[in-house]
What does this fold into?
Amino acid sequence: MYSRGGPDKIVKAVENITSVDIDYYAVIDNNAVIEIVDIIGGVTFDIPIDMDYDDPTQDLHIHLNAGVQNVNGSEAEQLLRFRHNNDGSSYPISYGDNDYGRMRTQREFMIETAKQTLQAKNILKVKDIVDIAYEYVETNLSVSIIKDYAPYAINMDISTIQSVVLPGGSYGPSTTPSYPLWFFVADKKETAVTVAKSVICSSLFKAAMFG
It folds into this structure.
C-alpha cells in the first residue's frame, strides 16, 4: 500500500533516499500474484516456519507448515500476509521477526514466483499472464516499451534476480531518537554503499543482456 500521493510520490521519496533516478514503476496488486501462481501450477517454496493465525474480522486464516512444498494461490496469499502466530510468536530474530520477517518472505516468494514463471514450460500461458497484468498491475510503462522488452524477458538469466534491503532501523515512541509513530529510517552512508554495489551489478547485467 502506498501513500495518498500515489506511486509518483513514492518514486520521488525512493529517489531522494537512494539518489537513483527511477524512470518506470509497477504497482502489483496481490491478486495478480495469487492468480499467476495458480496459472503456472503453483510455486515451489521453502516456507520458513509453521504459520498459524486467524483474524475473523478480515476473514483471514493462515495455516501453513514449514518446509519445501508447492504453494498454490490461496496459500500464497496466506504466506504473503503472515506476520505472527495466534500465540504471538513470529519469525526468529535471525530471520527477521514480525514485519521484517514478513517483508523477507514476501521478497523471496516474489523472486521465486518470477523465476518459476519465466520458464519455457509456461510459454503457452503468456496470454493469460498478460491479461492478469493488465487487470492488476499499475505502471507508467507504455505498451510499446513493454513489447520492446518482452523478447529479452524470455532470454533473461533468471538466476540473476535478487533483492536488496536498505540498511537502517526502526524508530518510534520508545526509541532514541523518538518519533510519534513507527518509521524505518535508512542509514544514509550505508545506503549509498549498498546502492553503489547494486548499480554496478545492474550495469554488468545489462551489458551481458544487451551487449
User: Anything to note?
Assistant: The chain is about 45% helix and 15% strand. The beta strands are 26-28, 43-47, 51-55, 60-64, 67-71, 137-139, 168-171, 183-186.
